[in-house]
C-alpha cells in the first residue's frame, strides 16, 4: 500500500488526538478495508458458532418449558438456519463487510427477540425468570464477538437489552425484587459490554495507527535510501548515469551476455572543440550544451535499449547489446546524428562546420578476450582518438589493424614530440590516504596531455603510442622531475609516486637519471616511489631487472601497480620484494558478490603473508572504505579520498584550511 503525505499527516494527528474523540474517517475506512477479509471470516465463523449454540440451547427449552418446547425449538431452528444461510449468501456474493455486519447484527437481534416472544407465553414463569439471563449472550455477542462498529454494537445490544428489560418488568410473572434484579442485571451487562467494546475498538484503532506510522516510517526510509542510491549513481549536471552506475550496469549486461547471443558494445563520445566552445561562450553555455546533448543521448539510448552515462567532462559513454560490428556502427552513427540534429551553434571551429558535433569511438566484446569494462573503454578511447584525427564529427569502431588508427598513432606521435616544449603535457596528483584515519600519506603523480586545440587526450590513448615510439622516455623523465620538484617545494606527504613503463626500465642509464633528478632537487630517495605496472614480465628483460635492483640500492621505493590484472604478478612477488603492492580497483568493485569479496580477502592474505604493504585503489564509496578498514588495509586511493588535481589546487586547499 502506497502511503501519501496526506495519510502520514492524518496518522500523526490521530495519534496525538485524545482517545475519546472520534476516529479519523479516512483512517478508519482504511482499517476496515485492511481487516476486511479477517472480518468476513470472523462474522461467518462467529454466526456459524452462534447458530450452533443457539440451536443446542433448545435442549434447555425442552427441559424447562415443556408446554412450548416444540414452538421454541422450531423458532430456534428457523431463525438460526435462516440467518446462517443469509450470512453465507451475503459473504459469497462479495458484499461489503459493512453489509455483512448489518446482517449479523440483525441475526442477533432477531434471534434474541424471536425466542423471547415465543417463551413469554409459557406457564413455567419461574423457570423463565431463571433462564432469562440467556439474553446476556446476545448482548455480549453484539458487543464483543463480531468487531462491529461501536454504533452498530450499541444499537443491536441496546435493542436486545430494551426487549429483555421490558419483558422482565412488564410481562414476566415474578415478584418485584426478582424483576428488578434481572432488569438491573441486563442494564449492567449492556453498560459493561459496551465499555469493553469501546475499549477494544479503540485499541484496534490505535494499534492500526501505530502500525501505519511504522509502515510510513519504513516507506520514508526506503524512499530516502532509493534517493541516495539515485544521487550516488547520477551525474548532477546532466542527470545521466555516472561512472559508478555505468560500471554496475556493465556487470549486469555481462550476466545477461552469458545467456544470449548478443555482444556488448561500448561507445565513448567526446564533444568536438568543446574547450573553445566554453572559452568563447562561457561555462554556463557549456553546461547548457552538455545538458542538451545528454537529453539527446538519453532518447537515442532508449530507442536502442541502451544505457547512456556521463564519463567525465565532455565525454559520454553508452553501453548497448548489439548483434555485431555493423549493428554497433549503426547505433554509434545514430548518436552522432542525434547531436547534429540539435544544431547547437559553435562559433569557433577550424573546419567549415558551425554546429556542435561529437567524435565517437566504439569497441565490442570478443570471444578471444576477457570481458572487462576497463579494456573495452581503452579500446573505445583509442578508436575515439582515431575519429578525432580523421577530422572529427565521425565515429570509429576499434580494430587493432585498422589503417585510420595507425594514422592516428602517427599523428599522435608527432604531437608527443612537441608535448613538453609546447606545454601540452601536465601533471596532476591524487592523494594516497591512511585507510583508518584518512590522513594523507603521499600522492601519486599522473600525466595529462592535451591536443593543440586544448581537448584532453586520455592516458589510455597516448601512453601506448608513447611507449611504441619511444617518446615515453622523455615524458616519463619530465613527469618524475616535476613530481620531485613539487615534492620538495610544496610537500606532498611522505612519498610521491610515478608510473614507469618497461621501456623506461630497459634504458641503461635510467637509474643514473633518477639519481641526477634527486640530487638536483635535494630530495631523499625514499620519498620517491616508482610504480611498475603488472603488464609484462620485466624479469625477462635483464637490463630492467638490474635497473630495479640499482634503484632499490639507491633507496628509491619500488611499487607494484594494478596487481591482479596481468599475468606476471605472482612470479614478480616470488622474485622481488616490493615496498607496496597496489591491488587493482576492479577487485574492490567486485566485492558486491560473495565470490568477489572472497577473492579480495585471499589476495590481501597472500600479500601480507609475503610481507608486502597493501594499497587498494578505486575507493569510491563509504561502504568500500569501511570494508577495507574491517580488513585491516593500511592505505587506500580513490575518488572518495581525493581526485587527481593540479598542484595549484592542492596549494589552494591548504591555504583555505589554514585560514
From TrEMBL:
Keyword Transmembrane: yes
MF GO annotations: cyclic-guanylate-specific phosphodiesterase activity
Top-level taxon in the UniProt lineage: Bacteria
Residue span, GGDEF domain: 262-400
EAL domain segment(s): 409-658
UniProt entry keywords in alphabetical sequence: Membrane, Transmembrane, Transmembrane helix
InterPro entries for the chain: Cyclic-di-GMP_PDE-like (IPR050706), EAL_dom (IPR001633), EAL_sf (IPR035919), GGDEF_dom (IPR000160), Nucleotide_cyclase (IPR029787), Rev_trsase/Diguanyl_cyclase (IPR043128)
PROSITE patterns: EAL, GGDEF
Transmembrane segments: 42-60, 102-121, 127-146, 153-174, 180-198
Stretches of the chain forming a coiled coil according to its record: none
Classification via NCBIfam families: GGDEF
Protein name: EAL domain-containing protein
Organism: Mesorhizobium tamadayense
Lineage: Bacteria, Pseudomonadati, Pseudomonadota, Alphaproteobacteria, Hyphomicrobiales
Amino acid at each position: 500500500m502506497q502511503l501519501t503525505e496526506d495519510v502520514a499527516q492524518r496518522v500523526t494527528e490521530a495519534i496525538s488526538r485524545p482517545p475519546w474523540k472520534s476516529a479519523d474517517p479516512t483512517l478508519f475506512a482504511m482499517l476496515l478495508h485492511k481487516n476486511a477479509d479477517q472480518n468476513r471470516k470472523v462474522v461467518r465463523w462467529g454466526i456459524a458458532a452462534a447458530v450452533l449454540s443457539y440451536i443446542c440451547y433448545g435442549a434447555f427449552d425442552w427441559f424447562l418449558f415443556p408446554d412450548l418446547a416444540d414452538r421454541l425449538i422450531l423458532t430456534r431452528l428457523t431463525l438460526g438456519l435462516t440467518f446462517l444461510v443469509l450470512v453465507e449468501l451475503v459473504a459469497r456474493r462479495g458484499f461489503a463487510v459493512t453489509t455483512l455486519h448489518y446482517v449479523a447484527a440483525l441475526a442477533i437481534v432477531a434471534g434474541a427477540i424471536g425466542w423471547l416472544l415465543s417463551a413469554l407465553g409459557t406457564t413455567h414463569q419461574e423457570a423463565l425468570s431463571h433462564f432469562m439471563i440467556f439474553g446476556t449472550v446476545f448482548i455480549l455477542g453484539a458487543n464483543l464477538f463480531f468487531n462491529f462498529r461501536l454504533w452498530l454494537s450499541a444499537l443491536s445490544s441496546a435493542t436486545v437489552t430494551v426487549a429483555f428489560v421490558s419483558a422482565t418488568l412488564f410481562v414476566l410473572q415474578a415478584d418485584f425484587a426478582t424483576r428488578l434484579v434481572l432488569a438491573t442485571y441486563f442494564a449492567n451487562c449492556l453498560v459493561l459490554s459496551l465499555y469493553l467494546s469501546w475499549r477494544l475498538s479503540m485499541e484496534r484503532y490505535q494499534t492500526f495507527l501505530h502500525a501505519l506510522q511504522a509502515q510510513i516510517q519504513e516507506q520514508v526510509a526506503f524512499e530516502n535510501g532509493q534517493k541516495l542510491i539515485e544521487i550516488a549513481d547520477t551525474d548532477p549536471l546532466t542527470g545521466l548515469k555516472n561512472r559508478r552506475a555505468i560500471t554496475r550496469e556493465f556487470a549486469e549486461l555481462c550476466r545477461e551476455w552469458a545467456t544470449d547471443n548478443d555482444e556488448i558494445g561500448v561507445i565513448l563520445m567526446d564533444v568536438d572543440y568543446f574547450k573553445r566552445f566554453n572559452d568563447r561562450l562561457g561555462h554556463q553555455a557549456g553546461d547548457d550544451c552538455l545538458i542538451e546533448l545528454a537529453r539527446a543521448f538519453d532518447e537515442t539510448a532508449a530507442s536502442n535499449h541502451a544505457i547512456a552515462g556521463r564519463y567525465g567532462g565532455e565525454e559520454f559513454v553508452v553501453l548497448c547489446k548489439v548483434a555485431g560490428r555493423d549493428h554497433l556502427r549503426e547505433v554509434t552513427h545514430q548518436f552522432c546524428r542525434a547531436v547534429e540534429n540539435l544544431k547547437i551553434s559553435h562559433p569557433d571551429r577550424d573546419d567549415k562546420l558551425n554546429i556542435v558535433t561529437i567524435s565517437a569511438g566504439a569497441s565490442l566484446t570478443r570471444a578471444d578476450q576477457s570481458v572487462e569494462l576497463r579494456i573495452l573503454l581503452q579500446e573505445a578511447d583509442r578508436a575515439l582518438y582515431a575519429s578525432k584525427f580523421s577530422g572529427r564529427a565521425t565515429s570509429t569502431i576499434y580494430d587493432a589493424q585498422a589503417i585510420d588508427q595507425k594514422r592516428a598513432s602517427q599523428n599522435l606521435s608527432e604531437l608527443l614530440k612537441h608535448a613538453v616544449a609546447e606545454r601540452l603535457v601536465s601533471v596532476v596528483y591524487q592523494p594516497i590516504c591512511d585507510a583508518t584515519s584518512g590522513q594523507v600519506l603521499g600522492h601519486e603523480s599522473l600525466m595529462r596531455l592535451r591536443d593543440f586545440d586544448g581537448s584532453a587526450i586520455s592516458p589510455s590513448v597516448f601512453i601506448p603510442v608513447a611507449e611504441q615510439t619511444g617518446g615515453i622516455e622523455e615524458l616519463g623523465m619530465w613527469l618524475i622531475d616535476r613530481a620531485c620538484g613539487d615534492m620538495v617545494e610544496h610537500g606532498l606527504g611522505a612519498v610521491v609516486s610515478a608510473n614507469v613503463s618497461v621501456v623506461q626500465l630497459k634504458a641503461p642509464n635510467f637509474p643514473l637519471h633518477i639519481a641526477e633528478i634527486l640530487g638536483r632537487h635535494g630530495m631523499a630517495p625514499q620519498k620517491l616511489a616508482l610504480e611498475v605496472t603488472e603488464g609484462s614480465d620485466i624479469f625477462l628483460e635483464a637490463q630492467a631487472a638490474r635497473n630495479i635492483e640499482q634503484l632499490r640500492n639507491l633507496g628509491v621505493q619500488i611499487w607494484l601497480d594494478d596487481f591482479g590484472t596481468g599475468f606476471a604478478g605472482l612470479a614478480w612477488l616470488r622474485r622481488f620484494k616490493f615496498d607496496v603492492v597496489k591491488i587493482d580497483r576492479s577487485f574492490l568493485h567486485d566485492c558486491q558478490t560473495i565470490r568477489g569479496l572472497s577473492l579480495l580477502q585471499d589476495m590481501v592474505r597472500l600479500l601480507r603473508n609475503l610481507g608486502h604493504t597493501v594499497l587498494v585503489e578505486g575507493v569510491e564509496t563509504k561502504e568500500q572504505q569501511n570494508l577495507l578498514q574491517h580488513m585491516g588495509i593500511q592505505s587506500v586511493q580513490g575518488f572518495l579520498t581525493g581526485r587527481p588535481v593540479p598542484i595549484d589546487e592542492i596549494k589552494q586547499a591548504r591555504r583555505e584550511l589554514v585560514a
